[in-house]
Amino acid sequence: MSRQACAALLSGVLLTAGAQAAVITTSTDQITLGENSNTFTLELRLEEDKPFAGAEFGIDLPEKTTLTQVDYLDQAIREASHTPEVVRDGRVYFGFYGASNAFQGEYSVARLTFTYTGSEDALLSLGTSNVVTLNEDGTTTGDTSSAPFQVKIEREESSGGSSGSGGSGGSERPEEDIDEGETPLNPGVFTDLEGHWGKDAALRAVEMGLFSGTSATTFSPDMALSRAMLVTVLHRQEGTPAAAQAAFQDVSAGSWYESAVNWAAAENIVSGVGEGRFAPDQAITREQLAVMLYRYEQYRGNAPASTGDLSAFVDRDQISPWAEEAMKWAVGAGILSGKDGARLDPQGSATRAEAASILVRLLDR
After folding, report:
1. Quick check: helix, strand or coil at residue 243?
2. Hey, CA dihedral for 79, 84, 87, 93, is it positive or negative?
3. Given 3-state DSSP classes, what are the helix, strand and coil percentages for the chain, each rounded to the nearest 5?
4. Higher pLDDT, 218 or 205
5. Geometric angle at alpha carbon 53, from 208 and 237, rounded to 5°
6. pLDDT band (50, 70, 90) for residue 308
7. 227, 278 contact by CB (below 8 A)
8. How confident is the model at residue 43 (pLDDT cuts 50, 70, 90)?
9. How many Å apart are CA 191 and CA 181, to the nearest integer?
10. Residue 344 CB: number of other CB atoms within 10 A?
11. Helix or strand holding residue 265 (H, E)
């Protein structure tokens, strides 16, 4: 995956070669169901020593088995973005993602509820996993090397069987391996864009090298965009030029966004949020996005001339004075459009889908 093709909005620390794979386990490796019981639960656990931004799981379902519910457990994972539950060829996918490498250590990921209507013993297994990290160069990397788990589903022969809630069991896990190199879906097939208003713009942004997916199957269109992510995209568009160190106390030396922030500050594309801070991880607001792009156009030698009329927007009084000129330009140039209810939502966070749409309008014309 090339740097240009992955001008990703997710960036961070790359898993080093030879690092130990994440450990993915379940609360039991054997389930016993009574004759009249069809439902059971498993708790999925994940342990990863390196910082990571999210994980995707693909569970191979035996015939007559359905994943009916996913309840995320640890608070950090509950608050993350969740990928849709998608079934393809007998494998069900689900996962969670954040906007930075905010995860590390041991997590009780989710309680999974299954329905099994078969009468024979069956085997449920982890078919694929993808622990996603954010790389120093602004791309994403997925580690798919975790060993698969397997859970045996047994039917009690007697009519007086148990309730079927699932037992811990003490049997050894089968040694059967999953073929290496399996991936959930072909790269670029983003299941969470189906029916989404931003699908066309998101796919075009990926084609232009502005964005990559958050996994092989997801784009995460509704994930908030951070300030560091936007300057990284713009920096890439200019070939990642070097610049002197900016005077932001919250931009760490060696961070994945340091070079981009230094360049953006040197070219007056960004000026920080006050008190010597850039707030790299802060979700960018729609008016901040407009201001950065307005200044970026000035940097490129394109004197922004379009001036839009904001009088039709009911929340125009919520635009900060320092952002008004840029907002007028963005509206007049057709870069920024309103939302339902004739709102500009200047203080609202910009999502990946919104940013993709705005950047495509700006750069693809």
Report:
1. coil
2. negative
3. 20, 25, 50
4. 205
5. 25
6. confident
7. yes
8. very high
9. 20
10. 24
11. helix 258-266
